[in-house]
Design goal:
The structure holds 2 protein chains of 2 kinds. By secondary structure, chain A is α+β, with helices and mostly antiparallel strands. Chain A is 60% helix and 18% strand. Chain A has a 4-stranded antiparallel β-sheet. In chain A, a hairpin with a 5-residue loop joins strand 1 and strand 2. Chain B is of the alpha+beta class. The chains are: A alpha+beta, B alpha+beta. Strand 1 of chain A pairs antiparallel with strand 3 of chain B.
């Protein structure tokens, strides 16, 4: 008959020893992994720093090259800024010219005009004097059927027509010129 | 010290290493990576800008700027305006005179209303009144030519007066009182940062630039006569 008094104790001790060894191993491995991680991160950091330094140098070189081209950049900026205003001006400019030339095309030779304002809306107040009825008739005919190549006449209103002292005829008209819609 | 305490100390030691050594290195790495991304973006933008600038023909842009300056100047175009109008009138066989100068509506608004905001782009105008005399057809032609003459002008007001020539009673002269506005805009004061992208010209901008070619420019009039007293001792 075998006497086994410490089986349980030995088994428990063995388990404790195993656990202790496992834990020691885990701590050693953990330490190693941590050290390795530290080395990897530090190396990566160094590499990225070096890359950054090179990139920084390239940025500075490129900046210097851009500064060397500053004359062209100034000219390009000048053009792009001026073209914005110029584009808007040219639109109204063309319309202004078209309105002024249309009114001018209506006026028969020998007409005195007090002075009309060229309005982009196309509403023109035309007043002046004519030496004869024939010329007045021609002016009214021109208003009904304006010469080709100019803007259309939407309508006109005779505000006043009377004789002047010297035998001439004074007139005051309100002329509405048809302005292209995209210009308004 | 019990075994349990030893174990706790070892774990704590590892944790401390993690916090004290690895964390700052990891934070710095993260910062460096962010800087790298920024630098890469910046370098790309700068390279693109440099490529654009190197792609622009310096002779062509120089010519365009000169043409633009003649048509839409940066300063008050008084001399060029007078030169153009007088020479255009002469070209059409018309008399030129009765010159009057006013600051222009845009400039007036700026000076009158202190509270009013100045045009952000700096656009200003100059109103110029003058008289031309001749026959109606030539005046009409003059007005047509004015459209394509530098500096850029806009006809504001037109008045016509019929005058009879005192020597030849049959001949009548038409005198036109014309008021034109000329525009000018100072150039941008600063270029902005180096990393600011270059504004490329659109198709409509190119079309506008092509329009500049159609504008007629006259040379500024330089007085040929000597001004001042003559040297009597020579």
């Amino acid at each position: 008959m075998d006497i086994d008094l410490a089986t349980k104790t030995i088994s428990r001790m063995r388990q404790t020893q195993m656990a202790k060894r496992l834990l020691d191993k885990a701590i050693i491995w953990g330490g190693l992994i941590l050290a390795l991680t530290l080395i990897v991160i530090a190396s990566l950091n160094l590499w990225v720093s070096r890359v950054n330094k090179t990139l920084n140098q390239r940025v500075e070189v490129t900046k210097k090259q851009i500064v060397a081209q500053s004359k062209i950049e100034t000219q390009q900026l000048y053009l792009s800024t001026k073209l914005v205003s110029f584009g808007n001006l040219i639109k109204t400019h063309e319309l202004h010219q078209a309105v002024a030339q249309t009114v001018f095309s209506l006026i028969p030779n020998g007409t005195s005009i007090k002075g009309f304002k060229v309005a982009e809306t196309g509403m023109i107040n035309l007043s002046g004097s004519l030496p004869s009825w024939q010329l007045l008739n021609q002016l009214l005919t021109n208003l009904k059927q304006p010469p080709p190549g100019y803007l259309e006449i939407k309508g006109y209103k005779i505000k006043q027509i009377n004789f002047s002292g010297g035998g001439g005829i004074n007139f005051n008209l309100e002329v509405e010129i048809k302005v292209p819609p995209n210009n308004l | 010290m019990t075994k349990k305490q030893k174990l706790i100390l070892q774990i704590l030691g590892l944790f401390l290493i993690l916090v004290v050594l690895i964390r700052p290195v990891a934070v710095k790495l993260n910062d460096n990576l962010a800087t790298r991304r920024k630098l890469n973006t910046s370098l790309n933008q700068l390279q693109t800008k440099l490529n654009i600038l190197e792609g622009i023909d310096p002779i062509m842009i120089d010519e365009r700027v000169k043409k633009m300056e003649a048509i839409f100047p940066s300063t008050k175009p008084i001399v060029s305006l007078m030169a153009s109008l007088s020479q255009l009138a002469a070209e059409n066989g018309l008399s030129f005179g009765g010159v009057s100068l006013t600051p222009g509506s845009l400039s007036q608004e700026e000076s009158q209303g202190k509270g009013k905001k100045k045009d952000a782009s700096g656009l200003a105008d100059l109103t110029f009144g003058f008289q031309i005399g001749g026959d109606l057809d030539r005046i009409s032609q003059f007005m047509q030519d004015l459209e394509n003459t530098a500096p850029l002008m806009k006809i504001e007001e037109v008045g016509l007066t019929i005058k009879t020539n005192p020597i030849f009673n049959l001949e009548t002269i038409v005198v036109a009182d014309i008021k034109v506005s000329a525009y000018y805009q100072p150039p941008p004061k600063t270029l902005g940062g180096v990393d600011k992208p270059v504004k490329l010209l659109s198709k409509s901008d190119e079309a506008l630039l092509n329009q500049l070619v159609s504008f007629k420019t006259f040379p500024p009039v330089i007085p040929l006569t000597t001004v001042g007293k003559e040297n009597l001792f020579e």
